[in-house]
Amino acid sequence: HRHLLALQGLEPPYIAELLDLAESYALLNRGGKAQRDLLRGRTLINLFFEDSTRTRTSFELAGKRLGADVINMSVSTSSVNKGETLLDTAATLNAMQTDLLVIRHSQSGAPALLSQKVDAGVINAGDGTHEHPTQALLDALTIRRRKGTLENLTVAICGDVLHSRVARSNIHLLLAMNCRVRIVGPPTLIPAEAEALGVEVFHDMRAGLKDADVVMMLRLQKERMQGGLVPSAREFFRFYGLDAAKLRHAKPDAIVMHPGPMNRGVEIDSAVADDPARSVIGEQVEMGVAVRMAVLDVLSQNQRRNAR
Ligand code: CP
């Protein structure tokens, strides 16, 4: 594969290869020994048309730890503001012999479009409501570390699934790796195609969380609810916010995940988010660096192979 645009359709052995490599980077990172020359002389550009804390920072760290020249293009101060189109921006970056382009965009499909126009390997860092592949990879790595396997686990993905690219990427990955996937939320925030994807749909948290191994909470994406009904934070928390009482319906050793950014008191209670016995939110962030190192490693190796 030259690019990482989506997890839908990716072969399970390729996903497992990425996770295994990410695991080895996670161990090296913990030992402070991950400085390598693998990407020496290569250029990685972060092109984020939407805000980010975790994804952009961890791609920067990942690129630097592998020896790449990393440039964070600030879209808000770029010529995009003078009316330059996405494709003209891409052509400009292409002319600078960029090797890897990491893009986040509000339009679903923008990274795929870009990948047809540039020579660089393109990595989707989140496109609209479509996919966020590296997030699902880091989630899977975190689950595998905590549970020892992905096979036959029950994963409940809860909240605003409709607008969530994180949920879509997770659904594709987890089903490919033989997990049982449930999605839990109010009917207005569940995508119409949910059951066709092969997941079970629940509108009640207690039923959806019953005996789950993993509880993954999602943020209400108000910025994508233009014209739609925005639930009140208080009502949402009452019915769908994860607190200790609702979590009791999951398995006693169930882990709690959140891709971030969190809205405490809306989709998750602080006591649960900060409970070291259950919450793996910090480990998710840590695994983000390892997963992105693995993705950069594999894509750059594939580029070298194609160049031969
Ligand atoms: N999970 C995630 O994508 O976080 P950021 O928006 O901070 O990158």
UniProtKB/TrEMBL annotation:
<dbReference type="InterPro" id="IPR036901">
    <property type="entry name" value="Asp/Orn_carbamoylTrfase_sf"/>
</dbReference>
<dbReference type="InterPro" id="IPR006130">
    <property type="entry name" value="Asp/Orn_carbamoylTrfase"/>
</dbReference>
<keyword id="KW-0808">Transferase</keyword>
<feature type="binding site">
    <location>
        <position position="260"/>
    </location>
    <ligand>
        <name>carbamoyl phosphate</name>
    </ligand>
</feature>
<dbReference type="GO" id="GO:0004070">
    <property type="term" value="F:aspartate carbamoyltransferase activity"/>
</dbReference>
<feature type="binding site">
    <location>
        <position position="54"/>
    </location>
    <ligand>
        <name>carbamoyl phosphate</name>
    </ligand>
</feature>
<feature type="binding site">
    <location>
        <position position="219"/>
    </location>
    <ligand>
        <name>L-aspartate</name>
    </ligand>
</feature>
<feature type="binding site">
    <location>
        <position position="104"/>
    </location>
    <ligand>
        <name>carbamoyl phosphate</name>
    </ligand>
</feature>
<dbReference type="InterPro" id="IPR006132">
    <property type="entry name" value="Asp/Orn_carbamoyltranf_P-bd"/>
</dbReference>
<feature type="binding site">
    <location>
        <position position="132"/>
    </location>
    <ligand>
        <name>carbamoyl phosphate</name>
    </ligand>
</feature>
<feature type="binding site">
    <location>
        <position position="82"/>
    </location>
    <ligand>
        <name>L-aspartate</name>
    </ligand>
</feature>
<dbReference type="Pfam" id="PF02729">
    <property type="entry name" value="OTCace_N"/>
</dbReference>
<comment type="pathway">
    <text>Pyrimidine metabolism; UMP biosynthesis via de novo pathway; (S)-dihydroorotate from bicarbonate: step 2/3.</text>
</comment>
<comment type="subunit">
    <text>Heterododecamer (2C3:3R2) of six catalytic PyrB chains organized as two trimers (C3), and six regulatory PyrI chains organized as three dimers (R2).</text>
</comment>
<feature type="domain" description="Aspartate/ornithine carbamoyltransferase Asp/Orn-binding">
    <location>
        <begin position="152"/>
        <end position="298"/>
    </location>
</feature>
<dbReference type="InterPro" id="IPR002082">
    <property type="entry name" value="Asp_carbamoyltransf"/>
</dbReference>
<dbReference type="Pfam" id="PF00185">
    <property type="entry name" value="OTCace"/>
</dbReference>
<comment type="similarity">
    <text>Belongs to the aspartate/ornithine carbamoyltransferase superfamily. ATCase family.</text>
</comment>
<feature type="binding site">
    <location>
        <position position="135"/>
    </location>
    <ligand>
        <name>carbamoyl phosphate</name>
    </ligand>
</feature>
<comment type="function">
    <text>Reversibly catalyzes the transfer of the carbamoyl group from carbamoyl phosphate (CP) to the N(epsilon) atom of ornithine (ORN) to produce L-citrulline.</text>
</comment>
<comment type="function">
    <text>Catalyzes the condensation of carbamoyl phosphate and aspartate to form carbamoyl aspartate and inorganic phosphate, the committed step in the de novo pyrimidine nucleotide biosynthesis pathway.</text>
</comment>
<keyword id="KW-0665">Pyrimidine biosynthesis</keyword>
<feature type="binding site">
    <location>
        <position position="55"/>
    </location>
    <ligand>
        <name>carbamoyl phosphate</name>
    </ligand>
</feature>
<feature type="binding site">
    <location>
        <position position="261"/>
    </location>
    <ligand>
        <name>carbamoyl phosphate</name>
    </ligand>
</feature>
<dbReference type="InterPro" id="IPR006131">
    <property type="entry name" value="Asp_carbamoyltransf_Asp/Orn-bd"/>
</dbReference>
<feature type="domain" description="Aspartate/ornithine carbamoyltransferase carbamoyl-P binding">
    <location>
        <begin position="2"/>
        <end position="144"/>
    </location>
</feature>
<feature type="binding site">
    <location>
        <position position="165"/>
    </location>
    <ligand>
        <name>L-aspartate</name>
    </ligand>
</feature>
<protein>
    <recommendedName>
        <fullName>Aspartate carbamoyltransferase</fullName>
        <ecNumber>2.1.3.2</ecNumber>
    </recommendedName>
</protein>
